[in-house]
């Protein structure tokens, strides 16, 4: 097997990289530069930090520079790990075999705003918040809205196949990227769209390659430019939170709301008892709530006022139709606004003695159908409880289920169980325990016909090894594509079990 | 004009809210200090607490403004806090 390996980087490679970008300050070999590009916010084996450091970081400014870097890596069989905001909740941007980290943050320009055909063309290093600050001047909006909205970047969203809080109304990342420029693992620069046409949203020519290049977790190339859809900026938003005394009523109310047919519905979220118990410890909105509040359903709508205003009355009716109680204007508007920015939340869990300890945040996500949510919830919590009681460094922060179908909110959910991990206590035994816990959670998703990840990506130990099982009879097709596009396995190797393509 | 008095900066005594939460300022909650033995708390003057709380509301308003021109509200009181109070 002639695939990428770690030890190919020497001074000659560094010199060649410097010659490509023509700027020594954009080829970073210092330890701090590499340490910062080793991990993402997700829990990390801090006791083995050095295993995940890139050997060198490059900050290109153009597609041509990216292309030359990748050609060099391909020639010398050096791993390449693309990195944008580094805000992922799985390990897409974490180097598993060292190599060259291609950090696209300097490719952050707006190249074109087209108000006639309603597109914006950007570099992959731009952040959605900054992009929308510019677009606001023109009355348009790019509606990709992750919980990392203030800090994640367009390139990472494309690589991850990101999920948006507003997906039920405006679609997710893949629905809002019209076309893109991609540097393939062999270094060629190609234009990827539905068919041809940089600004065409639908085509039936050839193969629909655009979907292949959104959500590959950096394993099929590096996006160097993207043409995005922009929508008329919403006139208004409306959010309403309803409390319930039991999960089942909240679950059924979620079903009522998502099947309401309201076109302005942007998202419905169901928080379970464990999530409410967690929020009741630390969140100012939930601490004063009475003990009778055991589950919460949140609804958000966006659009023209003439649509949203009458629809809000219907949401209030439906939210109460099975016994839900309105939580009030302050929590509805404030908590909803905070959903765009969960990365600003300080994270502390509780050890077995109830003491507050600083923990990192693991969101184990899955895509699941409405029908299986109650069963999955029971089994996931039971798994985390078992590991928490045995090891004492994990904490169950509860679950939520969030509408997942783009434009069709009625049956698919992004489901997450949030688990706190006391990273300072990690060692090989407890890290392996965590990986096993994660694998058990993912196996439950597969057992119920789900997908092991709706948005974060299956790139970490604990779920990457389950990708072949989930893909099933399509797995040979996946391997053939990877092998054809990346003959030397240089592009983000070790992710999603794609090494099997070279066996 | 507000006058800064050092003596006013000492946080008031906590009032218990739940088994694990106390409150020193209106609607500003803290984890019970007894549960902060592993992760020590930072001593914080009153002005700093109030600054952080005010900044939080500023942040939420700023975030709202990113997504829409206007925030519609149901305009109804909380039905859970009513029963609680």
Features:
A: alpha+beta; Uridine Diphospho-n-acetylenolpyruvylglucosamine Reductase, domain 2; Uridine Diphospho-n-acetylenolpyruvylglucosamine Reductase, domain 3; Vanillyl-alcohol Oxidase, Chain A, domain 3; B: 85 residues; alpha+beta; 3-stranded antiparallel sheet; 33% helix; extended
* Radius of gyration of chain A, in angstroms, nearest whole number: 23 Å
Residue runs with pLDDT of under 50 for 5 or more positions of chain B: none
Q: Helix proportion of residues of chain B, in percent?
A: 25-40%
- The named CATH superfamily of the largest domain in chain A: FAD-linked oxidase, cap domain/gating helix
Helix amount of chain A, in percent? Answer: 25-40%
Mean pLDDT of chain A: 95
Q: How would you characterize this protein structure?
A:
The complex is a heterodimer of chains A (503) and B (85). Chain A has 503 residues and is α+β, with helices and mostly antiparallel strands. Chain A folds into four domains: 11-103, Uridine Diphospho-n-acetylenolpyruvylglucosamine Reductase, domain 2 (2-Layer Sandwich); 110-232, Uridine Diphospho-n-acetylenolpyruvylglucosamine Reductase, domain 3, CATH 3.30.465.10; 236-447, Vanillyl-alcohol Oxidase, Chain A, domain 3 (3-Layer(aba) Sandwich), CATH 3.40.462; 464-502. Helices cover 32% and strands 21% of the residues of chain A. Chain A contains 16 helices and 20 strands. Chain A has helices spanning 11-21, 31-36, 63-76, 128-135, 154-160, 167-170, 173-176, 209-212, 247-258, 273-282, 305-320, 329-339, 373-391, 428-447, 467-471, 475-485; strands at 27-28, 56-58, 80-83, 100-103, 110-114, 119-122, 140-141, 177-183, 189-192, 222-229, 231-232, 236-244, 265-271, 295-303, 325-326, 348-350, 356-358, 360-369, 394-403, 412-421. The mean pLDDT of chain A is 95. Chain B is of the alpha+beta class and 85 residues long. Chain B has a three-stranded antiparallel β-sheet with strand order 1-2-3, with no helix packed on it.
